[in-house]
TrEMBL record, chain A:
Cofactor(s) listed in the protein's UniProt record: [2Fe-2S] cluster
Keywords tagged on the record: 2Fe-2S, Iron, Iron-sulfur, Metal-binding
Protein name (record): Formate dehydrogenase subunit gamma
Note on how the cofactor is bound: Binds 1 [2Fe-2S] cluster.
Species the sequence originates in: Thalassovita mangrovi
Gene3D superfamilies attached to this UniProt entry: Glutaredoxin (3.40.30.10), NADH-quinone oxidoreductase subunit E (1.10.10.1590)
Lineage: Bacteria, Pseudomonadati, Pseudomonadota, Alphaproteobacteria, Rhodobacterales
From TrEMBL, chain B:
Domain 4Fe-4S Mo/W bis-MGD-type: 257-313
CDD domains linked to this entry: fer2, MopB_CT_Fdh-Nap-like, MopB_Formate-Dh-H
Species, as recorded: Thalassovita mangrovi
GO cellular component: membrane; oxidoreductase complex
Signal peptide as annotated in the record: none
Domain 4Fe-4S ferredoxin-type: 177-208, 222-250
Name of the protein in its database record: Formate dehydrogenase subunit alpha
Every 4Fe-4S His(Cys)3-ligated-type domain range: 99-138
InterPro entries: 2Fe-2S_ferredoxin-like_sf (IPR036010), 2Fe-2S_ferredoxin-type (IPR001041), 4Fe4S_Fe-S-bd (IPR017896), 4Fe4S_Fe_S_CS (IPR017900), Asp_de-COase-like_dom_sf (IPR009010), Formate_Dh-H_N (IPR041924), Formate_DH_asu (IPR006478), MoPterin_dinucl-bd_dom (IPR006657)
Length: 158, 965
């Protein structure tokens, strides 16, 4: 092994790891911290996290691949999540999802060409009483129809 | 729990055994009593009731994911999983009812809806738990079908009918040479992942994704088994209930139909295996659950690396030649044996009775070793017998003999489960004793503390979920100074166990010793410059060991193979006595023996000064036992040690050698001197599987047999006598004990053993510590630890329980004396040597298996600083030179070694690390100082002159004439 030169990024990653390492069960907070700082969990962080927590790359992969929100490639500037759970499907959620994807010309998890919006499925936002529900970044929206979705997408720049 | 005898009950009990107060419950109307904490599933198995299951197996803790094992329990709601439900007193359990049958069928139907139905052509056909369970729950129909136009909702079809690829389908991973991973057959029960974590402790596997997308993944995304952290121990293959992880040999040869329990012939752990066969064809080796050394675990060598037994290089016919310049001539056994016998007798007539000798093998059985030393003593009429233990654990024999009164390791391997603080010194168990390494790591994950004393950062220092509290990275050659400094801290800070010392040890001697170690020149601060170990760290380590609870010391050849090897062993014994850590579970002094039967070959009287049972040949009463048993007079003078034999050969007074199963040219230090000694002999008889390096200088080659081809016993590092059972007929025609007997008889001995059990009876009749051992006992108990005699009819798992064997434990003064092998301007670096997981010793066996994918050449590990100042890059050819010789190999730059220290392995003869090592040796036992050589390295263009000459000579020496028509 060559002793790797510590670039600024590596030091920054180490700083984020150090910020959370004292917590009980520090892995998820560390991943959240990295995701927040970089929009992804950078590949360079993998050996550093594994070393700091004394876990293997396999274990880290198991955790990261379980949670959709820890990304290996960055999402668009905004993330639109459309609820796919039963209650929303029963009030038109499925049609809304299909129409939205068709309008943007995307598959699930796809990002628009201008990098503005990524569309993802989500399974229940807890808004069953006012479906179909969606979430734009951190904000939940109820009773979304196609027109409301068009508005949301426009705001997001899609 | 129940300890089954052979033939044993090999059922999977579902969940691991527990210890606790007895609890009685009723299962399907059968009352059963089990320890508290046992699962309902295991209790049912104890009662003879098998609850259907998929995700549970008794090598790992229950997981409760498959829901096939649901049962009904009176007074409880619902249908709890029997694997995760602990028993309670008075519990009434029903494993069969309409309700649970319906649930199980439904669960099974879902599993099978995502599993290919190619059972008849599947590699696991007949050995598949999924198949068995589908039968057990009475599954007759699978109603689930993919919706029309909905795509393929399964993981096992590569393409749909229109040729569209199924994104859920993953191709088979054949990257591991021994087993394949076929994701299309996986039921994601996690047994492999849990086995990798709980049993092996490598954490190489995970479940990636979630829900329907969950898959077993080796390493991270993009890894396959070979590129992952997988060490190929086989625990996952063992745990897999389907054909997902499957031995390639089974896929190729079919399901084995019979099995024989035997003992692995690699390291000193002595794992028990089931050799599974079709006819006399070995299909696979499976770790044996009731093996008391391994408890169902294995490593890559024992589990998979047996291919050498049928390798094309194996020599199956005897060969002779007049001179080592001639090519070999294949001859009949009679001709070879009479040629050898005539030559040996001729040498004795010409040069005297003591001009010939034997070297016994730590690879062969106890019975074979006993016969080889008997050949020297009763047929050659001298004591010129030595063994490869000379070059590994002879200092253990001397050091522990002096302090405790016996050379034996004090514990069994199970003891590690009770230990609280472990010192590992000069040993790398995760590579060299992997199954013990896994057991140790398991205990560390439970919270035991670890102190590693090693110049190199071994995997134990830090790897997944374990880390040493202290790594004392000492300079090679300073073991005594470090061990004495640890004792200094314990004594001067008053941390010793005075009551224990007063009761069990010689108090006067202790006082002298205490005065000696208390001298400020032994303080950590005083020796810091010498050892390179920070004094604070050393003090903390000493305090931890003295106060941390049950303290156990495990050590290996990094302790013994030094000019002060015996002194360090005594220092270790001192530490154990000082802290009261001998004589109960979880403590002790544990030498990790290198080879499968090092312990046994020493027990069997292989040393020139000791008759079997470590009794000096000078003692007339001991000689009398053997004289009356063998009807010969035994030479009262100790014979020659291996280095003395070689010196005497060069001087011209030692002329003939029978060397069984050992390659002294490659394994012994200072290769050039060994070569000169062998070349000076007039009759060298090599008895081996292969034309090894020593055979280049031999006149007679007697083909050997593998451990699969003979009956006998091996004794492992915990003194456990394990049976080796014949699995197939010897390819060469004779087991090794028969060959030795034929040679002895050709020299007029008149032996007539017809089975190794008769040799064991002779050992028992002459050797008190084996007095109670016979094959009937071994069949009954599976294995037994010596001493086994009237006082200990069931053997002795722990030594020194009621006091030391020698009476009072004896503290020995351990003065540090620096080795004469010193660094200087010409040779500024210290070379130390060791092993790697996938290769074994000189590599004669493992190099002839696919283990070479992990290690195809010896590499020199060097610290980045040392590399940089010499302009060496990773992978460069470099020349490694010492005062003895030089060789070339490739560099591996790593900070595992400290600056000033380089490290290599000695598995490959074309590297010949021992050309470089010196002939310095232990002051007491002549154990060579492999672990310290002053060297220099520089860039190189290729092999050295020695390597080229050697390669040419060995090609010449290995010519075999075609057999005469």
């Amino acid at each position: 092994m060559q002793t790797a030169q510590s670039g600024p990024e590596e030091d920054a990653i180490r700083a984020i790891i150090q910020e959370h390492i004292h917590l009980e069960g520090p892995l998820l907070p560390i991943l959240h911290g990295l995701q927040k700082a970089y929009g992804v969990v950078p590949q360079a962080a993998v050996p550093l996290i594994a070393d700091a927590l004394n876990i293997t790359k396999a274990e880290l992969h198991g955790v990261m691949s379980f949670y959709h929100d820890f990304r290996e490639v960055p999402a668009g500037r905004h993330v639109v999540k459309i609820c796919r759970a039963e209650a929303c499907q029963a009030v038109g959620g499925k049609a809304l999802a299909e129409a939205t994807l068709a309008k943007l010309g995307l598959e699930w998890h796809g990002t628009t060409a201008n990098g503005a919006v990524t569309v993802e499925p989500v399974y229940c936002l807890g808004l069953c009483a006012c479906g179909p529900a969606a979430m734009v970044d951190d904000k939940v929206v109820g009773r979304v129809d196609e027109a409301r979705m068009a508005e949301l997408l426009q705001e997001a720049g899609a | 729990m129940r300890d089954f005898i052979i033939p044993s009950d090999d059922r999977d009990m579902g969940t691991p055994a527990k210890q606790g107060a007895p609890v009685t419950l009723s299962i399907d109307g059968i009352d059963v009593t089990v320890p508290e904490g046992t699962s309902v599933m295991r209790a049912a198995a104890e009662a003879g009731v098998q609850v259907p299951k998929l995700c549970a197996t008794d090598s790992v803790e229950a997981f409760g994911s498959c829901r096939l094992c649901v049962v009904e329990i009176e007074g409880r709601r619902g249908t709890p999983a029997s694997c995760t439900t602990p028993v309670a007193d008075g519990m009434v359990v029903r494993t069969q009812s309409d309700k649970v049958r319906k649930i199980r069928k439904g669960v099974m139907e879902l599993y099978i809806s995502d599993h290919p139905l190619d059972c008849l052509t599947c590699g696991a056909n007949g050995d598949c738990e999924l198949q068995d369970m589908a039968g057990a729950v009475g599954l007759r129909d699978v109603r689930y079908e993919a919706p029309e136009n909905g795509g393929l909702a399964n993981h096992f079809t590569a393409r749909d009918t229109s040729g569209e690829a199924n994104p859920q389908w993953l191709p088979k991973d054949d990257s591991n040479p021994y087993f394949s991973y076929d994701p299309s057959k996986c039921i994601v029960c996690s047994r492999c992942v849990r086995a990798c974590e709980e049993v092996q402790g490598t954490f190489a596997l995970t479940i990636e994704g979630r829900g329907f997308g969950s898959r077993v993944s080796p390493g991270a995304a993009g890894d396959d088994f070979l590129s992952s952290d997988c060490v190929s121990c086989g625990a996952c293959v063992q745990a897999c209930p389907t054909a997902t992880l499957q031995e390639k040999s089974v896929i190729e040869m079919g399901t084995p139909q019979r099995s024989v329990v035997t003992t692995c012939a690699y390291c000193g752990v002595g794992c028990s295996f089931k050799a599974e066969l079709n006819g006399d064809q070995l299909v696979r080796m499976v770790p044996y659950k009731h093996g008391k050394a391994n408890r169902g675990h294995s490593c890559v060598k024992g589990r998979f690396a047996y291919g050498y037994a049928n390798h094309k290089d194996r020599i199956l016919n005897p060969m002779i030649r007049d001179s080592i310049e001639d090519p070999w001539r294949e001859v009949s056994w009679d001709e070879a044996l009479s040629f050898a016998a005539t030559r040996m007798r001729g040498l004795q007539e010409k040069y005297g009775r003591r001009s010939i000798g034997v070297i016994t093998s730590s690879r062969c059985t106890n019975e074979e070793t006993f016969l080889v030393q008997k050949l020297a003593r009763a047929v050659f009429h001298n004591n010129n017998t030595d063994t490869c233990a000379r070059v590994c654990h002879s200092p253990t024999g001397y050091g522990l003999g002096q302090t405790f009164g016996t050379s034996a390791g004090t514990q069994d391997f199970d003891s590690v489960e009770k230990t609280d603080v472990v010192i590992v010194i000069g040993a790398n168990p995760t590579d060299a004793h992997p199954v013990f390494g896994s057991r140790l790591k398991k205990r560390l994950r439970q919270g035991a503390k670890l102190i590693v004393i090693d110049p190199r950062r071994t995997d134990l220092v830090k790897s997944a979920h374990i880390a040493a509290s202290h790594h004392l990275a000492l300079r090679p050659g300073t073991n005594v100074a470090v061990v004495t400094a640890l004792a200094h801290v314990i004594v001067t800070e008053g941390l010793m166990d005075e009551a224990y010392i007063r009761e069990r040890c010689d108090w006067d001697e202790f006082q002298q010793y205490a005065e000696f170690v208390s001298d400020p020149r032994h303080s950590p601060e005083a020796v810091e410059m010498l050892t390179g170990v920070p004094s604070d760290d050393l003090r903390e380590a000493a305090r931890l060991f003295a106060t941390g609870g049950n303290g156990a010391i495990y050590y290996g050849l990094g302790v013994t193979e030094h000019s002060q090897g015996s002194t360090t062993v005594m220092g270790i014994a001192n530490l154990a006595m000082l802290t009261g850590n001998v004589g109960r579970e979880g403590v002790g002094v544990n030498p990790l023996r290198g080879q499968n039967n090092v312990q046994g070959s020493c027990d069997m009287g292989s040393f020139p000064h000791e008759l079997p049972g470590y009794r000096h040949v000078k003692l007339p009463e001991v000689r009398a036992i053997f004289e009356s048993a063998w009807g010969v007079e035994i030479d009262p003078e100790p014979g020659l040690r291996i280095p003395n034999m070689l010196d005497a050969a060069v001087d011209g007074s030692f002329k003939g050698l029978y060397c069984q199963g050992e390659d002294i040219l490659q394994s012994d230090p200072d290769t050039k001197h060994v070569a000169a000694g062998l070349a000076a002999m007039e009759c060298v008889i090599v008895h081996d599987l292969f034309l090894n390096e020593t055979a280049n200088y031999a006149h007679v080659f007697l083909p050997g047999s593998t451990f699969l081809e003979k009956d006998g016993t091996f004794t492992n590092a915990e003194r456990r006598i394990n049976r080796v059972r014949r699995v197939m007929a010897p390819l060469n025609g004779y087991a090794d004990w028969e060959v030795t007997q034929m040679l002895a008889n050709a020299m007029g001995a008149g032996w007539h053993y017809t089975h190794p059990s008769q040799v064991m009876d002779e050992i028992a009749a002459t050797t008190p510590s084996f007095a109670g051992v016979d094959y009937a006992l071994l069949e009954e108990k599976g294995s037994v630890q010596w001493p086994c005699n009237d006082a200990h009819p069931d053997g002795t798992p722990l030594m020194h329980v009621d006091g030391f064997v020698r009476g009072k434990g004896r503290f020995m003064i351990t003065e540090y004396v620096a080795t004469d092998e010193k660094t200087g301007p010409r040779f500024p670096l210290l070379l130390t040597t060791g092993r790697i997981l996938s290769q074994y010793n000189v590599g004669a066996q493992t190099r002839r298996t696919e283990n070479t994918v992990w290690h195809d050449q010896d590499l020199l590990e060097i610290h980045p600083h040392d590399a940089e100042t010499r302009g060496v890059n990773d992978g460069d050819w470099i020349r490694l030179a010492s005062r003895s010789g030089e060789t070339t190999l490739r560099a591996k730059i790593t900070d595992r070694v400290s600056p000033g220290v380089v490290y290599t392995t000695f598995h490959h003869p074309d590297t010949q690390a021992n050309v470089v090592t010196t002939d310095y040796s232990d002051w007491a036992t002549n154990c060579p100082e492999y672990k310290v050589t002053a060297v220099q390295i520089s860039l190189s263009n290729g092999p050295t002159e020695w390597q080229e000459d050697y390669a040419a000579q060995s090609t010449r020496a290995r010519r075999i004439l075609p057999a005469a028509e």
